[in-house]
Amino acid sequence: MEEMEEELKCPVCGSFYREPIILPCSHNLCQACARNILVQTPESESPQSRRASGSGVSDYDYLDLDKMSLYSEADSGYGSYGGFASAPTTPCQKSPNGVRVFPPAMPPPATHLSPALAPVPRNSCITCPQCHRSLILDDRGLRGFPKNRVLEGVIDRYQQSKAAALKCQLCEKAPKEATVMCEQCDVFYCDPCRLRCHPPRGPLAKHRLVPPAQGRVSRRLSPRKVSTCTDHELENHSMYCVQCKMPVCYQCLEEGKHSSHEVKALGAMWKLHKSQLSQALNGLSDRAKEAKEFLVQLRTMVQQIQENSVEFEACLVAQCDALIDALNRRKAQLLARVNKEHEHKLKVVRDQISHCTVKLRQTTGLMEYCLEVIKENDPSGFLQISDALIRRVHLTEDQWGKGTLTPRMTTDFDLSLDNSPLLQSIHQLDFVQVKASSPVPATPILQLEECCTHNNSATLSWKQPPLSTVAAEGYILELDDGSGGQFREVYVGKETMCTVDGLHFNSTYNARVKAFNKTGVSPYSKTLVLQTSEGCNFETQSASYSQLVDIKKLLAVAWFAFDPGSAHSDIIFSNDNLTVTCSSYDDRVVLGKTGFSKGVHYWELTIDRYDNHPDPAFGVARIDVMKDVMLGKDDKAWAITEGGITKGATIGVLLDLHRKTLTFFINNEQQGPIAFENVEGLFFPAVSLNRNVQVTLHTGLPVPDFYSSRASIA
């Protein structure tokens, strides 16, 4: 209940509402406070002058923001009425709860009448201290605003639950303890205020004064005040105007401005709005429950961070002590870095705990207030505030949106220490990895069907992976020099297609691309091998291909390794991804990291281990080959299976994309004639094996001499 107290206090005086009225913006004010912040406006801005000129369309006219400035965002502390040259500027003040308000230029005359009955200056304007919307009052003054009976009832129940001593309602500063209550005025007085404001003479002499406790009981037992129409004070609310969203009386429907509006029964709308508020509270209650669980999670994270920090520090000290004197200075630096990370994590989590606690407190206060409002049995009073409460509940629920209940920090320390360098390199010792604040883009994918060469030009196309969630700000395309040399940047930009001109004829180029953003760069894509033309179109000549071109001049060696990214999960890599084996008894497929579409390429595989006579397969495959069956079992692979090989044997694979053939060798001897013909497209070196086999890949090899000699005489 204590968290609801802020909902029950006036934004001007900071005390519990006394005779609260509802402004058109749905906020509440004490009737006396509303009178205190009235500001007089010129005749030209009055409702009467607007209606006379035909510009007035409602009983309450909101002022244009460019004509009236009663609230200033600046730090000057002053507000002025810009459309009234003779009106002096009035310093603004702050209420106890921090809301900026504006007192009247002249103090109100002393009167014993209630604020509602006291005369209101003509052409008065009031500005809501919470949303700062300004409006001009009509002839009814403050009587034109409906009274919030529901809020009064909630405050009474709250004060009774607190069981605190009753305070005087008229003390200006620190309220004194009340000594009497007037049953007719329904006001608690201390002795000084009773003598000053309620003297025992005149009409007041007939009022009955009772002790405060008895007055509290009589107030609680007295019948609930019935809300009356603001336009027809003698009529009670009987219907609900759907268009204006407010209770109305019988005369409003007969002769007032609601005569042509759609109306519904007051009781039915009361039940409907109560149901809507209850449903909205259910969603907010779930959010509050999640927030409480989230706070428990955050507090647990604090403990875990502390425990992980101690464990990490102990490990770090142990590693540093192993290096004795050479690591002593570096040890202090690394410990300081870990402590900084520790404090950073704790600060982030504690800040999130503080933020979430404040938001949960506000949410809980609103929930308790709404639950008390639902208990109210005054349909008219309830409907006056139900729409605003429903909007507030939905708005508060939206504030607990996606990401609010997600930890901003992990409990793990994403750092590891590598103690393997030599002692002379200790001054370069540092943590191997520091987690990036935000992720880098995913690795781009080369679109092989759109990559091609024409004469001495190459066109390459790429794209981001379909499920990538990190945007790339640009791409970097790299090509080697056509002779197996170093890569160099040939394009940097946002486009996903590039044509590179001026390449060497009759050369094999390796191409790769990577993406980048503000955080960093992605890994490189797979390397694509492209072959430029020989300088003329030999396919149009009558002589055979082998008679016109020396095959040795067409060859360019390729360096590559096995690709962990596309391999089956049972494949085990070692030796910089040049050696592979398997953890399963079933055959699993692994591909090379480089694909070939043109040229003549040769590589070898040596058998490091060969147990129990397995059946490994060697050859080439397309990128979408099945990875969980023996190579060659589908139509995406071309392979040889030799059960007679032994440990130490060497298998050679020759892919001639000029002739569109695939040939195999074992221990430098060709295995029969050409194994496969009419081989076209993009192919990757491929191997299938199980746990009984281990092979090592050897690349960058020239074509065997006996094959080139056969080709020259073919």
Question: In words, what does this structure look like?
Answer:
It is a single chain. Strands 25, 26, 29, 32, 33, 34, 35 and 37 form an eight-stranded antiparallel β-sheet that branches. Strands 21-20-23-24-28 form a five-stranded mixed β-sheet, with no helix packed on it. The chain has a four-stranded antiparallel β-sheet with strand order 3-9-10-4, with no helix packed on it. Helix content is 27%, strand content 21%. The protein is an alpha+beta fold. The N and C termini lie far apart (97 Å). The radius of gyration is 43 Å and the shape is elongated. The chain is built from twelve helices and 37 strands.
Q: What is the CA–CA distance across the termini?
A: 97 Å
Given helix and strand content, the structural type is alpha+beta
Biggest sheet details? 8 strands, antiparallel
Q: Would you report the number of β strands?
A: 37
Question: Secondary-structure blueprint of this entry?
Answer:
Blueprint: E1 20-22, E2 28-30, H1 31-36, E3 39-40, H2 47-53, E4 61-62, E5 78-79, E6 90-91, E7 93-94, E8 100-101, E9 124-127, E10 134-136, H3 149-162, E11 180-182, E12 187-189, H4 191-197, E13 209-210, H5 212-221, E14 239-241, E15 246-248, H6 250-255, E16 263-265, H7 266-322, H8 328-374, H9 379-399, E17 445-446, E18 452-454, E19 457-463, E20 474-479, E21 488-493, E22 497-500, E23 508-516, E24 527-531, H10 545-548, H11 551-554, E25 571-574, E26 579-582, E27 588-591, E28 594-596, E29 600-610, E30 617-621, E31 637-641, E32 650-656, E33 661-666, E34 669-670, E35 676-677, E36 684-689, E37 693-698, H12 705-713
Helix pairs in contact: 7-8, 7-9, 8-9
